[in-house]
Amino acid sequence: MLNIQLSFWQKINHPSFKTLAVLLGLFCVVPVAVFEVLPGLVGALAGWAFGMGDTPVFLARHENVYAFVQDLLRGGYVLLSVGILDFLFLVWVYRLLDDTITRQGKWRGVLAVALRAFGPLFWRQACVGIALCVLLWWADGFSSLTLLPVFFSSEISAGIVMAVWSVSLILFACGFAVTESGSEALRFGRLLFKTYRFSWVVCFIVTLLLVWFPVLVFAKFGVTGSAVLSICFTLHNSILLFCFLTAFLIWFFNKPEVFAIDTPAEGAEQDPLNN
User: Fold this and answer.
1) What are the backbone angles phi and psi of residue 251, rounded to the nearest 5°?
2) Contact between 271 and 199 (Cβ < 8 Å)
3) Does the pLDDT of residue 153 top 70, yes or no?
């Protein structure tokens, strides 16, 4: 069995174990910083900014203004967090793409492409997020935090958000790598999804389950509570997501002519899982 696995690994283009270790380290460090450290920093900055002079008294007397300020702070945290996670995923996608297809092996080029793709991706995400916040402003229990792609949650809706964000980001990144244009990246991403629809649906479902199901299992055994456990949950699910999504993309990028599709008429309308 081991010989079969090693033979398969040798036959495909794949990143080196050193590269995978670096990417895994980023997937461990960045989410912990975003979900465990950044909220405290934002809270401390907000306390400093709004804790001076008569500001606390004013906010206490005006509940609507206070609620609006809270919404702004939550929205600012979400935008900052999504931006950091966007760049992490872009670097990850382009490093895997480089090691499996272009094989230039240079981090500088990967970072350059990620930086070029970040702007077109992020402002589109921000527009969608702001539009959803405006539309759902009066919905009970809704806040901008609902749109944050978290790596673990007991809420299935959070798993759906994470799955939508992950799949759409990967498709956009692939499209941008081919077109170097935001609008064209969307078009190519839609075409890539349509051509390999079943594969991406499987990716979506598994990502959702990896975010949501482990938390239910831990809760079933009474493993809930402290900040230390929260960090452990984040690390656990970051590693799970990294392993699955990395394996999926290595497999996907090794499929023949994945990026050769140009138009729906010319593209191969056949899902590789059915080959």
Assistant:
1) -60, -45
2) yes
3) yes
**Among the listed residues 96, 80, 105, 79, the one whose alpha carbon sits nearest the alpha carbon of residue 24:** 96
DSSP line for 152-173 = --S-HHHHHHHHHHHHHHHHHH
One-character DSSP codes across 39-78: HHHHHHHHHHHHSSTTHHHHHHH-HHHHHHHHHHHHHHHH
User: Which phi-psi region, left, alpha or beta, contains residue 267 (left: φ > 0; alpha: ψ -120 to 50)?
Assistant: beta
Tokens of 37: 């450290």
Rounded Cα gap, residues 270 and 275, in angstroms: 8
Hey, what are 268's tokens? 């191969």
Quick: pLDDT tens for 91-113. 999 999 999 887 776 899 999 99
Treating both helix axes as pointing N-terminal to C-terminal, what angle do 17-32 and 63-97 enclose, rounded to 10 degrees? Answer: 180
Range of weakest confidence among 66-75, 181-190, 255-264: 255-264
